[in-house]
Design brief:
Helices cover 26% and strands 24% of the residues. It is an alpha/beta fold. The chain has two domains: 2-150 and 293-345, Medium-chain alcohol dehydrogenases, catalytic domain (Quinone Oxidoreductase, Chain A, domain 1); 153-288, 3-Layer(aba) Sandwich (Rossmann fold), CATH 3.40.50.720. The strands form three sheets. Strands 3, 4, 5, 6, 7, 14 and 15 form a seven-stranded mixed beta sheet that branches. Helix 6 (202-211) links the parallel strand 9 (194-199) and strand 10 (215-218). Helix 4 (151-161) crosses helix 5. The longest helix is centred in the middle third of the chain and has 11 residues, at 151-161. The two termini are 14 Å apart.
Length: 347
């Protein structure tokens, strides 16, 4: 089969690799029908994730069709149409038993495209298939379902839920890429008074308005005072969601949050950020971090199938699976071409 493989910082290739096979009784092999590229993949290519070794097939999000199951798989069968979650869950360890699948100690967690071969390929082996694949309802198309593999549960769990977004809140989202836009969409479920989005690119700010942001600011205009002035009482954000993964954006979130507010870090950081405890300690600020657990995926899947989540416009560029290199180039240069989420389909 063909797949996208990593060969050290800045080096990737699309070419022939061995087909995946069942290695464990709980494995399934899935034919990839739709796949996407994540900002985390770009971090890997920059060398920010040293655990990823030479030759690793990247990718951790896909929609596909089960073609083979191991003898230990009970709830899936060949022909089932499934969502391949970005997180794998053994289902037995102490973390999995509380739904904290991202911290699985039984061989799961974020492993696809990280510690095992991932989804940017024609086929993928998926460990712990019963717990890590989700059957898709009739009528939900591949492109829409693809957004449930990572960005929607990540934004919802690590941003909105960790930040305890509540009715009447002022929510500031720094970064209006796919995760930031998904955070706007899912934050609206809790009826905040105002959602403010910040980004470098005007195209992404336009997308933020369409997603439901009440106000948008370019990075140049998003001074701390300007952000506070947009909150009803001038005190700043009840919840500041960091959706970029840069020291400046994280540090800005800690400055613009009001006393008693919450900073929810979602971005993947490759460099240290300064934590100014000398000014934060007295302000009762809560800071959360996290890897998505995907425990919310069934809920979000039901809401998406029922039309209760509007994700129109999140996918901006579409490719054939064999155009993977072109898709990477477009996604990596999103600021110039207005790319949000790219989707690649089996042709």
């Amino acid at each position: 089969m063909k797949a996208l493989t990593y060969h050290g910082p800045g080096r990737r290739s699309w070419g022939e690799v061995p087909d995946p096979v069942i290695l464990d009784p709980e494995d399934a092999v899935v034919r990839v029908d739709a796949v996407t590229i994540c900002g985390t993949d770009l971090h890997i290519l920059k060398g920010d994730v040293p655990e990823v070794t030479d030759g690793r097939i990247l990718g951790h999000e896909a929609v596909g069709t089960v073609i083979e199951t191991g003898p230990g798989v009970r709830t899936l069968a060949p022909g089932d149409r499934v969502l391949v979650s970005c997180i794998s869950a053994c289902g037995r360890c102490a973390y999995c038993r509380t739904g904290t699948y991202g911290q699985c100690t039984g061989g799961g967690g974020w492993i696809l495209g990280h510690l095992t071969d991932g989804t940017q390929a024609e086929y993928v082996r998926t460990p712990f298939a019963d717990n890590s694949l989700h059957k898709l309802p009739q009528g939900l198309n591949d492109e829409t379902a693809l957004l449930l593999a990572d960005i929607l549960p990540t934004a919802f769990e690590v941003g909105v839920r960790n930040g305890h977004v509540s009715p009447g809140d002022t929510v500031v989202i720094v970064g209006a890429g796919p995760i930031g836009l998904a955070a706007i969409t899912t934050a609206r479920l809790y009826s905040p008074a105002k959602i403010i989005a910040i980004d470098l690119a005007t195209t992404r700010l336009d997308a933020a308005r369409r997603a439901g942001a009440d106000a948008v600011l370019t990075v140049a205009d998003a001074t701390d005072d300007a952000i506070r002035a947009l909150s009803p009482d001038g005190l700043g954000a009840d919840v500041a969601i960091e959706a970029v993964g840069l020291p400046d954006s994280f540090e800005q979130c800690t400055r613009i949050v009001r006393p008693g507010g919450r900073v929810a870090n979602v971005g993947v950081h490759g460099k240290p950020a300064t934590l100014h405890l000398e000014s934060l300690w007295i302000r009762n600020v809560t800071i959360t971090t996290g890897l998505v657990d995907t425990s919310s995926t069934p809920l979000l899947l039901d809401m998406l199938a029922a039309g209760q989540l509007d994700v129109a416009g999140l996918v901006t560029h579409r490719f054939g699976l064999d155009e993977m290199q072109d898709a990477y180039d477009v996604f990596a240069d999103a600021g110039q071409n207005g790319a949000l989420k790219v989707a690649l389909f089996r042709t």
